[in-house]
Amino acid sequence: MESSDALVFFGATGNLAHKKIFPALAALVSRDQLNIPIIAVSRSGDTREQLLERVRNSLTEHGDFNQDTFDKLSGLIRQVDGDYADINTFRKLKDELKDAKRPIHYLAIPPSLFETVIDSLAEVGCAANARVIVEKPFGRDLASARELNAALHKAFDESSVFRIDHYLGKEAILGLSYFRFANTFLEPIWNRLYINSVQITMAEDFGVESRGAFYEEVGAIRDVVQNHMLQVLAMVAMEPPSGRGTEGLRDEKVKVLRAMPPILPADVVRGQYEGYRNETGVKPDSTTETFVALKAQVDTWRWSGVPFYIRAGKGLATTAMEVYVELRNPPTGVQLGQVGVMASNSLRFRLSPDVSISLSANVKAPGEEMAGREVELSFNDMPSADGLDPYERLLGDAIDGDTTLFTREDFVDEAWKVVANVLGDATAVHPYFRGSWGPEASDRLIGEGGWHNPNENDA
Ligand code: BG6
Predict the structure, then answer these.
(1) Model pTM score
(2) Disulfide-capable partner of 316 in 100, 203, 218, 353 (CB 3.0 to 4.6 Å)?
């Protein structure tokens, strides 16, 4: 694969650039993995000194500031300032690109500007043989996602489009798929015969913070379920990828989504934390959900009948992400003279903030009775969750032209189909207290063992 020879970066003075992109570029530079011109495009009117000051602040606040790395990165940065609606901005960009043959354009800008920017890139001849990186949200439903994709495809074919879902670049999530396929003991039990249910929880103990206006238009289902959570579900449920090339993994993930019937309103409980309506940018009578719990199905030979429960929310009791896989119970404890109820075996993938994998088992509790107690076997010498930052990994991959960890167009489409019936006000929204586990109504969705709350009911 041919690597890109220039990185053009729209939105260089934006929030994402400040928090994620400059620190990731600096990390790549410090590991000698980035040595191409970076053309920072913005409409801020910044001088070069002001731009470099922004970079310095970004690295100080969100990265590891190091003078040597900063100097190297500054040496790569060129600047184009101008309005995105003005074709002259793109003519200046063309001049700055000089003899670059395979530039990559990172659109760290609102999706409403994509089409204008793409059309202008094409008009001045900067889109030919180029690649493009875009950020979520990929639309707000199937129709708008298709419009966005059509705008991208006017100038870039699908193999040149890199849609970032930063969850795919997370060490812990890559670790989950690695664990699945690297361990022989797992495959025989990884199916409906041995697995009772799967729960995927993404809990955040903070609210919408300064993003009220954005969040109000989005809500939890669009913000994290349609993308991050379905990506994780696909990693758990997919068949082993086969074949050469980069598409094997992406093919298998899409197959999972295709096998999922659209989620039904009856299988969804939405919640909104008390006080959300007072957040800046939020409507006083808002019905946007800050929490969602839902039950999904994957109708494949491997998974038919196994419920996949998803829970995601803000203002919850803790900040953690876990995948909890509950195994079926052995037929009975009678042969053992078992007293009391035996807990189900489970596999727990702790994905953040720390990373571990645990297997729970029942052992006999010491004493006269044949009563059991649950113990956990834990693999916790895992790389730390923040080993390689997702943006660092993903930007490096995009520059190298490797699409494996990016969201393909058909995944975006299928993910919107899965949530199509439950977007917006299709279901009621229930209030819940901050610091809780969401509205009590969510308890009616789950089976016998109840929700597994990270940090609470560990063995
Ligand atoms: C983003 C969402 O995509 O992911 C945020 O827009 C959410 O609302 C964030 O907080 C969570 O990412 P992470 O990496 O902190 O788990």
Answers:
(1) 0.95
(2) 203
**What are the CA-CA distances from residue 75 to residues 60, 79, 102 (Å)?**
18, 11, 20
Q: Which domains does the chain have, with CATH numbers?
A: 6-135 (3.40.50.720), 168-389+407-446 (3.30.360.10)
Ligand 1 pocket test, candidate residues 135, 166, 217, 225, most atoms within 8 A of CB: 166
In 3-state terms, what secondary structure has residue 149?
Answer: helix
Q: Per-residue pLDDT tens for 254-307?
A: 999 999 999 999 999 999 999 999 999 999 999 999 999 999 999 999 999 999
> Is 62 a known active-site residue?
no
CA torsion sign, 265 to 297 to 352 to 326?
A: positive
What's the 224 CA to ligand 1 centre distance in angstroms? 7
Atom of ligand 1 nearest to the CA of 218: 6
User: 351-404 pLDDT, tens per residue?
Assistant: 999 899 999 999 988 988 888 889 999 987 666 545 688 999 999 999 999 999
Angle between helices 247-258 and 409-419 (to 10 degrees): 20
Element (H, E) at 28: helix 22-30
